[in-house]
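Usage example:
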Amino acid sequence: MSIGNQQSGIDERALIQAVQAGDKAAFKAIYEQYQDRIYNLIYYAVGDRAAAQDVLQIVFLKAYRGLAGFRFESSLATWIYRIAINECQNQNRKHGYEHVPFEAILGTGEEIDAGAPPDELHLTDERREIVGEALLALAPHLRTVIVLRYVDGLSYKEIAYVLECSAGTVASRLNRALCQLEERLRPLRRLL
Amino acid sequence: MKLFKVNLRCLYSRRRLAVYADGEVPRRTADRIENHLVDCGECRAILLRLREGQRFASQVPRRSLASDQWAEIEALIAADGKRSPAPTRVHFAGWRRPAWASLATVLLALVSLSLLILTAILNRQSHIDYSRTSGVTGSLDLSDFHAVSISDMAQSTEPHVVAEGYVSDVRIDNEDGDLIFKLVDDVKRPQPFVVCEIIGPIKLAPPPVGSRVRVYGVSRYDGKQDHQWYEVHPVLDIEVVRR
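Running the assembly step on the lines above writes:
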């Protein structure tokens, strides 16, 4: 699955050219198209909602600045993803954002099983929250590769472009990330 | 010799198992891995773990923005200059400067620092009461900013505000390294206050403590447990009313 296929009929090239001509409304359209995906990626990279919002602002400021030099050599999506990843790395280096430890949120198996059975929809949300927290317990570069592949559905080639590494490195990181995620969630596999 | 061959096959397969589990290896590679899996329990176990990991990964929840950030981004862009985007190069991790460029950058930084220090000394000596800490407001439309008193900040729904008050405290935020200062109505009373945050992309000098200033920026509420206060964040410009 390629993220290029996820465009919703908007002529992206025309939007970029409009931004390059100084049309701020066109940039707003680009922001609206990508804000959620980019926020999601940043959130899992820095592990903090407030910090993710701040980083998102800087990413789109940099995207706006950089669009004049955009030469259509990559898709706009992967180009913005790349800015986001680099900004997350900057922020993580600068501030060392920490997330609440997985165990602190998850508690023990007994605590999870206790209480009245919740309805199915609520249970699904709960399961997803547990998986989300488990992901945050991995190293940032491992979280990122999981989000890019399994949440955003990027191809290995696209991930390699975004992370500026080889497809082999992507595969090796995915190997490690998936094994670590499985290891963390193994005790809860019946629940998930 | 047999053991050596088995290890090499394991190595070959394990490097490709995640891609194989994703169904993204060519048919010939898939055949080779499958032939190996028939004989190797360890690699089969790893494949099962990877598949389980993929099942978990497909349940990772997608996070959404709690509030639209366009007003803040628009303000940042406005502060960056009212112009079509300049051809700014986006620097990536793999990009390397040549050695002479690093040296030139260091020299340029030293010269700039010297000039800054010199300017600061001259400004102090001549007691020039400059009204702004930077020229950013020149590129902003001041009519976009709504005057809000510090005590009324909680009631304001305007994204772009200008708040006037006394600077009671200037420090560097421990969390993100940004410059922050407190704005109060009365220097002798700590409440009510607004926290003003100067972020990296906007180059602004912090105002002196005790000075009366007008602060232009984006209003927001910081709901962190140990914060829970109103902020002007980012600060887009500072006008010094009285030193």
